[in-house]
Amino acid sequence: RPLWCLAAQRKGMVIRMKKEFRDLLREHGRDTLPNVLLVSAECAPLSKTGGLADVVGTLPKSLAKLGIDARVITPYHRCIKDKYADKVEHMFYFYAKLGWRQEYVGIEKLVLDGVTIYLVDNEQYFGDKIYRGGNPEGEQYSFFCRAVLDAIPNLGFDVDVVHCNDWHTAMIPMLARTQYRGAKQEQIKYLLTIHNIAFQGKFGFDFVQDMLDVDSRYYTPEFMELNGCADYLKAGCVFADRINTVSPSYASEIKMPYYAEGLEGILNARSAQLTGIINGIDKKVYNPHGDALLPARYDRGHLKGKAVCKAELQARMGLEQRADVPMFAMVTRMTEQKGFDLVACVLDDMMCREDMQFMLLGSGDERFENFMRSAEGRYKGRLCAYIGYSEELSHLVYAGSDFFLMPSRFEPCGLSQMIAMRYGSVPIVRETGGLRDTVTPYNRFTGEGNGFSFANFDAWEMRDTMRLAMDCYKNEEIMSGLISRAMQADFGFERSAMEYAKHYIWML
Ligand code: ADP
Ligand code: GLC
């Protein structure tokens, strides 16, 4: 389809949605769209460790196109101060009560790409790492929840919906409903988005009492107790007005014990308020046609630039300069979630038997980092393990690779496979969560599909799927069809924004 046709289709969709919003609002006796405050531990491009930051950075821009004023509140992390201090405007400060402590809260403001971002300043909590781990992290984000709630009435922004993200912000609905009775914070509606149920923020009751003065009657299984701990994400699931997660498949999966990490009870009980909204990506940031971080640009019809990117990636990473060899890539946090056990199990076998290259950009668990470093030593010139985080290099890896491997044990949504597809790197994924919802497996009989997938969390299944991909690589016609269909998939954020907009209105 030509581009103008897609653009017209999208415009038509926006007009239809705006009408649908008006009708929905009328049902709620309102004539204005809700004001939304997104609360998050990270927000791209200011601070980022993973996909959460991308989503919180992109969603408000797409909501603005629908006429919704969505603003963000996030910690004023060291990495933001270092880069943006001269663009930030101080608004006001106060002292928040954190148990017996009185803690400084500075509220700063930054406008980026037309989106207003409020930054919560406190050197003691946000002066170094974004996530400190363990109880220190619990203290960082208990402080953040309290600071956000106390700041809301003074932001000069009439908030209708607070949109919380993950456990770091999940105590907000509970505190609002139990400790702010009769105040503005109690009137607001709360949406909780679960980006990853594996992280729940579990602490001792004494700790939570000491931080947030939570009454002991809430330390029970109907409220926030799980396995003898106070669980912040569970509290969010109990008290939020609505809950969503980031893909329809993951929304079903987290009602089952294998994926729910103990929260299946509450999520089944609240299944009427639980939905799955698939994420999108920022198509301006991830755009092979206009990406300033690449040595050459390209698009679906003109792939010469992709070959230049592959050669540049090989040269920069010390890999053999060969155009004819399939290059598999991963850009990832190196954790069990991302299926590193499978990679560790079959990588040697594959590297010994197959004519292939492997490029990893990632960091995480020490054991996986060490495994990949040693593999690099064994397969010099064919395998590169770049241990670290680099936004710039990630673009070159997406553009320069032929296949993108994502064999996740579970994957709430996954942005990397969507980014890879946009850059024409054909995804190889396990059929779980958002990976199942975004990748259509190649069908050798009909020729359909935009990637490869396997069902079980099994290293040999992954290896067989990679082999199938390599066979397809040898057939130019099949491969160019796959690349073309992968690049054609529409993962723009517009659709997600429309779904979120509907959710906000339903909650009013
Ligand atoms: P998750 O949020 O679970 O880590 P996603 O696929 O949703 O996984 O998002 C990962 C995001 O982080 C993508 O934008 C990806 O490009 C980026 N990313 C992950 N690891 C790195 C890295 N080492 N260097 C640069 N970017 C990375
Ligand atoms: C989490 C999930 C990932 C998802 C991201 C953004 O980090 O692990 O699958 O894409 O959040 O929602």
Overview of this structure, please?
- With 508 residues, the chain is an alpha/beta fold.
- It has 21 helices and 18 strands.
- The radius of gyration is 23 Å and the shape is globular.
- The protein is 43% helix and 19% strand.
- The chain has a nine-stranded mixed β-sheet, sandwiched between helices. The chain has a six-stranded parallel β-sheet with strand order 15-14-13-16-17-18, with helices on both faces. Strands 8-10-9 form a three-stranded antiparallel β-sheet.
- The two termini are 39 Å apart.
- It binds adenosine-5'-diphosphate and alpha-D-glucopyranose.
- Residues 50-52, 55, 195-196, 246, 279, 411-415, 434 line the site of alpha-D-glucopyranose.
What layout of secondary structure does this protein have?
Layout lengths: L2 H25 L8 E4 L11 H15 L4 E6 L2 H7 L4 E10 L2 E12 L2 E7 L1 H4 L7 H18 L9 E5 L5 H9 L4 H4 L1 E6 L7 E2 L1 H8 L12 E2 L2 E3 H8 L2 E4 L2 H6 L3 H4 L3 H6 L4 E3 L27 H13 L10 E8 L5 H14 L3 E8 L1 H13 L4 E5 L3 H10 L2 E4 L9 H7 L3 E5 L2 H6 L13 E3 L4 H16 L1 H13 L5 H14 L1
Parallel strand pairs: 1-2, 1-6, 2-5, 6-7, 7-11, 11-12, 13-14, 13-16, 14-15, 16-17, 17-18
Antiparallel strand pairs: 3-4, 4-5, 8-10, 9-10
Helix pairs in contact: 1-21, 2-21, 5-6, 5-8, 6-9, 13-16, 14-15, 14-19
This protein binds adenosine-5'-diphosphate (ADP) and alpha-D-glucopyranose (GLC).
